[in-house]
Amino acid sequence: PFQIVISELQLGDASGVSFLRDVMNASPASIRIALTAATTVAPLISAVNDAAVFQILTKPCPPEKLRQAVEGALRRHGEAVLERELVDRTLAGAITVLSEVLSAVDPMSFGRSMALRQNVRNLAKELELRSSWELEVAAMLCNVGLITIPASLITKWNSKVHLTAVEAEIVQRFPASGRTLIAKIPRLEKVADIVHYQNKNYDGSGFPADAVQGEQIPYGARVLKVLIDLAEIELRGIGRPEALTAMNNGQSRYDPKILQVAMRFFGYAPGNGNAVRRPVAIPVLAKELRTGYVLASNVETSDGKMLMATGFTITETLLARINNFGALSGLREPILVEKPA
Questions:
Q1: Which domains does the chain have, with CATH numbers?
Q2: pTM (predicted TM-score)
Q3: Which stretch of DSSP H or E encloses residue 46?
């Protein structure tokens, strides 16, 4: 986008204020300067309030004054870019910290989140989403509310052991805890809502127990609902075609348009598959692991304790954790990984 946009406020039959407002909506980072010969206050107020104009110059405008205005606008643009980069880095750091906390508390759920993120990324292309970053972050953090649940209950839940009514209610509410955690991070308000409604059925049943249903449910949550349920059914040992058939028979639970795209993408009908080619998994020793590698098998200690599940992308923090456990109790090797292209 342009760093600076300068426009007259009077553009014949057109409105300069409307033009600058359109610029603001299309390219918020562009600094806007208005030129005017108006002698009334109203159009000037409109330019500032409606188009967030950085500076208004009156005509005729001396070249030196215009140059100073442009230099000031360039400085303001540079400051805004630095500020935005700082916010983006802070945001990325907060997301990484939350996901790595989950990886330490519940490796299995974190592994599912990483696999879910990859499915979200692939399906987003089929759904023709203009931007999928919020949906991908929601997939990464969809299980972060589990850090509020006792480890013993998480283990019991992951083992598919029967839960008491109290335990079941605690587990059911973890998306609400996740929403509370995520909503504290600026710019993740929509992500928090997606996480909150990830288990909400399209017909309005399910958690949370409110009146929201159908297209009132955040779009991203409707996408996660399809992909989460598909993964859960497959975890029971049911093949993907059979899983998709079962989901198609329970259509009231899913957004029908999203479900149809998912069924087509994941190969529900013969010849309609769009299977994503993944890199070939290769065996490595723990000392050969590097950041950026994706686990194609679980990482386990020598006595069988799982540290990380398939689907993890190795980060510096996770690599340090592997090394520490390896030094203390040893690891089962080799470990299967997918190397980045």
A1: 4-82 (3.40.50.2300), 106-265 (1.10.3210.10), 282-338 (3.90.105.10)
A2: 0.65
A3: helix 42-51
